[in-house]
Amino acid sequence: MSNSSHPCQNKICHGEQLNYNTQEHALKSIFVLDILFQFGEAVIEIAQEKDQLLKS
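User: That's the sequence. What structure does it adopt?
Assistant: Structure tokens below.
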């Protein structure tokens, strides 16, 4: 049973990995979500700009 420093959902669910509940992992999760939201907003903005160019 390996206890990696990277959380693995399957191992966490089966109780094999117990070191996932740290402030570092929580912050990394928040940063990943922030990046995904920023990426989504950028995609929407690009799509809107493309639509405006095509309508011109």
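DSSP finds two helices and no strands in the chain.
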